[in-house]
Amino acid sequence: MLSNLLIKNYALIKQLEMSPDPGLNIITGETGAGKSIMLGAIGLLLGNRADVKSLYDSSEKCVIEGSFSLSGYDLAPNFEDENLDYSDECIIRREISVAGKSRAFINDTPVNLDALKRIGSQLLDIHSQHDSVMLGNNEFQLQVVDSFADNSQLLKSYQQDFTTYKEATKAFENLQQEAVKLRKEFDYDQFLFQELDNAKLAGDEQEKLEVELNILENAVEIREKLQLAHTLLDNPDNSILELLKNAANALSQAARLVPVYDAIRERVQSTLIELRDVADEIDQANSSVDIDQGRAELVQERLDLIYTLLKKHQATNIEQLLKIEADLQHKLSIVLNLDDDLIKAEKTAIQAKERMLKSANVLSEKRRKVTKAIEKLILERLSELGIPNASLSIQVTETLPTVNGLDSVAFLFSGNKGIVPQELKQVASGGEFSRLMMVIKYILADKRKLPTIIFDEIDTGVSGEIARKMGKMMLNMAHNHQIIAITHLHQIASSGNAHYFVYKDHSSDKTVSKIKKLTVDERVQEIAQMIGGHNPSETVLVNAREMILKEQT
């Protein structure tokens, strides 16, 4: 339950702190005093979106912090699912910076809004002023049935099966569409692959062939130039090598006379050796150059094939062609295995559907089993709240599979004797909606085992004895849950274990909303004013005191 609430720098609230009673807490105050602002702040603890415009002082950050006592509510698994440390004392904090950046923490661990919503929904439920209208929504009615039947685990299991079924069906449909496309392209892809496969391409052959063709096309001239170079180097009559040899001999003779010239001789001798190696290589290169017109034609044909394939496939090199060939082979293998893959995918989809339908049928059966019990409980409580002639029929009809199962639920209602029940949204008045929602919250409270429930003017459209009975219901709920009720009715206000008053303080330059816990005398005064206006008579004060004493006994 909510043990402490701190709100700083939010809307009209500069700083507000309260420690609600474990039982029934009443909050009253004039319209516009700030009660809804408090709910907005609490909503931020439940993961609602933040807005920098909500800062009371734009130069300071906003902080909303709620301390919750969780002992006895078996919520540890929910924290484990979010990878959060569990403690019987949980602190949820929400901060909004002056720049509008929002941060959320659970026990000082940063969390995202989705995680905050999941944890918050297990700690606290807020019924706002307009939520009663939701009762006319068929999806909400289905949630009511599921909550009463305690179907949370069944629904979760079904939804997992439903997701698997949708994914398997989608995969099968996608494969069918892909099969049609691939089969249309199969013949052409096979032709392209065969063409590339027959080419027997090698990664570096284009460069090698281009070099070879260049040599073959210029073989005569190349041999002439190589022969000339060799002749100049190693002509027996008058060659560079012969001249260098003579120079080396001359330097050798000079070195015998003056040893200092031996270094020059060695350099010439080294050059002579190097040029002899060069001459030998030129001679070998010359011998390797063939004048082979037939080979040139073969190389040209091979290169023409490569160039054609490169252009055809818009590739820049053979490596890309080899990649295209591998991709084509993969596509062809897929087509060749399509029938097996389609059979397998269809079988998977059928099995997933069977599992989904089995889960859905279990869920549907449990829903149908509880409808009569829900009808009976709601009608009994409605009779207590002044609708003794109400009739209610919960219709469960089969639909196509959805994320919620195979069922559509409709609450058919009539508040008057002899009137055929119709869908709630067509026949229920505002007061009837309020009482119906109160009854449903009442009978579902223990099913959901929520620590804290907040009612924001759920009493709209009711008054008198009916309001008193609604207050009694809230007090009964407070035996197992912490209840916080915002109300304008003295009959409900007198039922509380604790009473808080929200008001505007205009004493400073800027109006602020504040809250205070009323003493017994202050509470009598507030309820008396709710009954008789700002200046209640002594009789009204006595009546207010008696009402408080009566409701607490």
From TrEMBL:
<keyword id="KW-0547">Nucleotide-binding</keyword>
<feature type="domain" description="RecF/RecN/SMC N-terminal">
    <location>
        <begin position="2"/>
        <end position="506"/>
    </location>
</feature>
<dbReference type="GO" id="GO:0043590">
    <property type="term" value="C:bacterial nucleoid"/>
</dbReference>
<comment type="similarity">
    <text>Belongs to the RecN family.</text>
</comment>
<comment type="function">
    <text>May be involved in recombinational repair of damaged DNA.</text>
</comment>
<dbReference type="InterPro" id="IPR027417">
    <property type="entry name" value="P-loop_NTPase"/>
</dbReference>
<keyword id="KW-0234">DNA repair</keyword>
<protein>
    <recommendedName>
        <fullName>DNA repair protein RecN</fullName>
    </recommendedName>
</protein>
<keyword id="KW-0175">Coiled coil</keyword>
<dbReference type="InterPro" id="IPR004604">
    <property type="entry name" value="DNA_recomb/repair_RecN"/>
</dbReference>
<dbReference type="GO" id="GO:0009432">
    <property type="term" value="P:SOS response"/>
</dbReference>
<dbReference type="Pfam" id="PF02463">
    <property type="entry name" value="SMC_N"/>
</dbReference>
<dbReference type="GO" id="GO:0006310">
    <property type="term" value="P:DNA recombination"/>
</dbReference>
<dbReference type="GO" id="GO:0005524">
    <property type="term" value="F:ATP binding"/>
</dbReference>
<dbReference type="GO" id="GO:0006281">
    <property type="term" value="P:DNA repair"/>
</dbReference>
<keyword id="KW-0227">DNA damage</keyword>
<dbReference type="InterPro" id="IPR003395">
    <property type="entry name" value="RecF/RecN/SMC_N"/>
</dbReference>
<feature type="coiled-coil region">
    <location>
        <begin position="165"/>
        <end position="226"/>
    </location>
</feature>
<keyword id="KW-0067">ATP-binding</keyword>
